[in-house]
Amino acid sequence: MKTITKICCIGAGYVGGPTMSVIANKCPEIQVTVVDINKDRIDQWNTENLDTLPIYEPGLKEIVAESRGKNLFFSTDVDTAIDEAQMIFISVNTPTKTYGKGKGQAADLKYIELCARNIAKVAKDDKIVVEKSTLPVRTAQAIQNILENTGNDVHFEILSNPEFLAEGTAIEDLLHADRVLIGGNDTPSGQEAKDALSAVYEHWLPKERILQTNVWSSELSKLVANAFLAQRVSSINTISALCEKTDANVQEISRAIGFDSRIGPKFLNASVGFGGSCFQKDILNLVYIARSYGLNEVADYWEQVIIANDYQKRRFAGKIISTLYNTVSGKKIVLYGWAFKKDTNDTRESPAIAIADALLEEHAELLVYDPKVKEDRIYADLDYLGTRSPEENRRLLKVTSDPIVATKEAHAIALLTEWDEFTAYDWQKIYDQMLKPAFVFDGRRILDTALMNEIGFNYYKIGE
Ligand code: UDX
Ligand code: ADP
């Protein structure tokens, strides 16, 4: 079997950075070089002050501190790193296309293609190329075609090795992965490549959790895993709407069904809707692939998970408007949370964006507080929608760093992210300074109903 001594990873982002840090940490005899065309990002990875690494993940800085400069390097010299490595990971971004065919659904592969062309240009000996980005099915094939048709007559073996990290727990997920998937060709050189990558993970994971499959299965498994998880959230969210019309309580239902060992308790928390860079994108990819094979029923089935998610966001905003006597025009509403979940500063596809947009359409005056998301990001998220001018967004929505002062003379508070600090606030003090009746709309079900009612709030909790 081929022994790997040098690994190169193209893309120093959310996937490449943490994954390579853990590989380097667990495989001291392998030299790992992470490269990126973005010099600022590489400088940030090389910074003395480990509190300013470009990505925040619990446990990451400790691992970087141990390995950086020993066998973990961050560089902008992409070509040298490709040239020296026997194994090259591609971890570049693959956003949903914003133009042309498949716009709004298919993944944009231009960064992947540029990487493949670069590898083909530089490589002078055989390489194993591992696709690690979140990708639609058939990308390995596309990479293979580019490498074979433009390379210098060297052999490339392409593997698919999808990532299953959740933000906020990425290091934990890497160190104790439920499973690692390695997809590759069923040829002798394909098998050799799969075994070589498996040997890297076997440094810290039991062999039975490393699953070898064909390329299609590996690529599709990634989309299907996320589609199933998102489907659970949409399923319980549709039930939350039914609970609100009846006397049922969605949490009691989650608990009751979660005790069934065939269902299990995870991903059954009703919320304002799911967000994040993966769920929506991966389902849209699944839908796109199914439709491109003429499987319209399959496509419709999975598309419904997204439709239900959009419905949940709209429903929450609608609830705020109808409860505030059918008008929020000129009313001050404080939004607690902008990130798509707690413990991350990532806002990609965050439900807060759609909810804020719907309230702004009704001319509400919004004040946003999030402990980790910066003001620029919030405005960029809204401007990107293009619903109204950037000036209008800045006039109607303000960002604040003081969550308590923000509630002075507010009509309502909407809780959109489940940050722990929200439960620790002095809610009596907040109540005292709000306009009466004082409304709280809890989209994450984190506050204590009895306490909120006792203080005097008109308290709405999703799913009750
Ligand atoms: C997800 C997958 O979990 C991970 O395996 C994959 O590699 C990338 O996508 P991530 O997007 O980081 O990870 O977050 P996740 O914890 O899965 O949450 C996604 C969204 O669902 C969040 O907006 C979260 O608030 C929401 N959610 C999750 C719920 O609303 N209810 C739940 O019970 C669980
Ligand atoms: P992900 O969440 O998938 O890791 P990110 O956007 O956080 O996505 O990171 C992807 C990284 O890939 C970015 O830092 C970007 O600069 C880098 N990148 C994109 N294309 C190339 C390329 N051709 N060569 C090197 N780095 C690239």
From TrEMBL:
Catalytic reaction(s) noted: UDP-alpha-D-glucose + 2 NAD(+) + H2O = UDP-alpha-D-glucuronate + 2 NADH + 3 H(+)
GO biological process, one term: glycosaminoglycan biosynthetic process
UniProt keyword Disulfide bond, yes or no: no
Domain (UDP-glucose/GDP-mannose dehydrogenase C-terminal) ranges: 334-449
Record has Transcription as a keyword: no
EC assignment: 1.1.1.22
Pathway membership: Nucleotide-sugar biosynthesis; UDP-alpha-D-glucuronate biosynthesis; UDP-alpha-D-glucuronate from UDP-alpha-D-glucose: step 1/1
UniProt keyword list: NAD, Oxidoreductase
Active site: 278 (nucleophile)
Entry-linked Gene3D superfamilies: Cytochrome c1, transmembrane anchor, C-terminal (1.20.5.100), NAD(P)-binding Rossmann-like Domain (3.40.50.720)
Signal peptide: none
Binding, NAD(+): 11-16, 36, 41, 92-96, 133-134, 167, 278-281, 348
A GO MF term: NAD binding
Function: Catalyzes the conversion of UDP-glucose into UDP-glucuronate, one of the precursors of teichuronic acid.
Similarity remark: Belongs to the UDP-glucose/GDP-mannose dehydrogenase family.
NCBIfam families, sorted: NDP-sugDHase
Protein name: UDP-glucose 6-dehydrogenase
